[in-house]
């Protein structure tokens, strides 16, 4: 007897069997699933899932390549986002434990070959020309000279390598001039990310700061998004940059320059997940990362900021590390001053959020930051806090009765407090 859901369309099957899992993913990943389903409906007859065969998938792949003219990497991504839906409908088995056994066999097709190319890296001469070309900028206009906006953005992307969606939307609270740190939640992964900032980057940020009164460091939300690319293109024409650079090319440039200090350093700054047992479990890159960022070669033009913004505009760094700079995190551990603390995902995210805040964090803020894709109760937050306390007491061998995560009692939330010797 055939299963009644064999007559569902692929989108209906997604909504019935996969939407709950997709809700756990980042917003950007969910958008890719919807994009793939839209392409499926546009370039196929949208057959019932029971009629989808290997040939149906292959025809869809070829239509995207030939009729739609999409790049092989885009076609590959579309098929890879349809596969989990089809797998969910297939029989359960190895690596498909959640299979619903609606289909006897999961359709398959070969993915298009994606040609690999060398990354486009901006040379120091190109960066110098771009920096000087910023003097010709006429937009945006929001109280800070357009030239300063573009110089700061260029220096920021070269030294931090953040993704476009993370850069345009950073609040002033993401930057700590005292600790020389940038802390933000990555849009792509949903994970909290901390990057040291060197003096050149901080001086450029100070040149457009305006005491942090704006909602964003680089406020393009009130400016037409098309306008920023138009101005970026104009600056490159003035600088004679050919082939042109994208914002993502500056991210690649940052990663390539930092890789000279160690691939693990570049991965941390760019927010890439560590790979391999040694990298995940044993490396504590905190000191190396700050040293690499401070020693990152700067184009000569970037140094001119010292003539416009005095060095004493930045607070001096304490010789003793603060709590935030003493910590780093891997996929399943927290590392405090060289001591590795095994800790599960949610407790680790809670600890990381409190450390990044540098002050009291309320239960509501923890729920929003750690469980950002689901609704949870206050009891869940308190239980996780208790788990973190227990882990810190055990792994750091804290004195008897010491509470590393006290609640302020006035409703402002939890803070991290450790004895000096720990």
- Would you count the extended β strands for me? 6
The average pLDDT is: 85
Percent in strands: 5-15%
Shape: globular
The profile of the biggest β sheet is: 3 strands, antiparallel
Number of helices in the DSSP assignment = 17
Helix content: 40-55%
Low-confidence regions: 277-285, 317-322
Radius of gyration: 25 Å
Structural class: mainly alpha
Feature tags:
422 residues; three-stranded antiparallel β-sheet
Structural commentary:
The protein contains 17 helices and six strands. By secondary structure, it is mostly helical. The strands form two sheets. It has a three-stranded antiparallel β-sheet with strand order 1-2-3. Strand 4 and strand 5 (333-336) form a beta hairpin. Helix 2 (27-43) crosses helix 4, helix 6 (146-160) crosses helix 10 and helix 10 runs antiparallel to helix 11. The longest helix is centred in the first third of the chain and has 18 residues, at 72-89. It starts with 9 loop residues before the first helix and ends in a 27-residue tail after the last helix.
Per-chain topology:
Elements: H1 10-22, H2 27-43, H3 54-66, H4 72-89, H5 124-133, H6 146-160, H7 164-167, E1 175-176, E2 181-185, E3 192-196, H8 199-207, H9 225-239, H10 247-258, H11 263-270, H12 277-281, H13 286-295, H14 305-308, E4 327-329, E5 333-336, E6 339-342, H15 345-357, H16 363-370, H17 378-395
Antiparallel strand pairs: 1-2, 2-3, 4-5, 5-6
Helix pairs in contact: 1-4, 2-4, 3-4, 5-9, 6-8, 6-10, 10-11, 15-17
């Amino acid at each position: 007897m055939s299963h009644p859901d064999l007559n569902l369309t692929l989108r209906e099957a997604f909504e019935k069997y996969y939407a709950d899992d997709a809700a756990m993913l980042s917003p950007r990943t969910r958008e890719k699933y919807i994009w793939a389903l839209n392409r499926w409906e546009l370039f196929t007859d949208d057959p019932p899932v029971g009629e989808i065969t290997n040939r149906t998938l292959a025809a869809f792949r070829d239509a995207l390549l030939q009729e739609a003219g999409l790049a092989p990497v885009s076609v590959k991504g579309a098929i890879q986002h349809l596969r989990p839906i089809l797998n969910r409908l297939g029989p359960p088995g190895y690596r498909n434990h959640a299979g619903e056994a609606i289909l006897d066999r999961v359709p398959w097709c070969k993915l298009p070959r994606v040609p690999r190319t060398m990354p486009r890296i901006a040379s120091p001469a190109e960066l110098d020309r771009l920096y000087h070309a910023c003097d010709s900028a006429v937009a945006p206009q929001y109280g800070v000279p357009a030239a300063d906006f573009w110089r700061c953005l260029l220096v920021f992307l070269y030294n931090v390598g953040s993704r476009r969606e993370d850069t345009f939307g950073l609040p002033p609270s993401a930057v700590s001039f005292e600790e020389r740190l940038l802390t933000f939640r990555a849009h792509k992964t949903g994970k909290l990310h901390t990057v040291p900032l060197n003096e050149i980057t901080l001086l450029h940020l100070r040149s457009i700061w305006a005491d942090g009164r704006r909602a964003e460091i680089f406020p393009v939300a009130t400016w037409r998004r098309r306008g920023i690319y138009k101005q970026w293109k104009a600056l490159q024409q003035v600088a004679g940059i050919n082939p042109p650079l994208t914002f993502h090319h500056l991210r690649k440039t940052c990663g390539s320059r930092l890789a000279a200090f160690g691939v693990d350093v570049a991965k941390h700054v760019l927010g890439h997940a560590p790979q391999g047992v040694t990298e995940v479990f044993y490396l504590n890159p905190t000191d190396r990362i700050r040293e690499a960022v401070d020693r990152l070669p700067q184009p000569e033009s970037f140094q001119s900021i010292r003539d416009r913004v005095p060095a004493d505009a930045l607070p001096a760094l304490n010789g003793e590390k603060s709590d935030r700079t003493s910590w780093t995190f891997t996929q399943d551990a927290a590392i405090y001053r060289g001591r590795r603390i095994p800790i599960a995902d949610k407790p680790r995210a809670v600890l990381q959020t409190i450390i990044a805040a540098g002050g009291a964090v309320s239960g509501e803020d923890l729920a929003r930051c750690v469980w950002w894709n689901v609704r949870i109760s206050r009891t869940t937050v308190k239980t996780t806090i208790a788990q973190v306390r227990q882990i810190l007491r055990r792994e750091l061998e804290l004195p008897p009765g010491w509470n590393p995560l006290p609640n302020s009692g006035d409703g402002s939330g939890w803070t991290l407090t450790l004895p000096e010797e720990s």
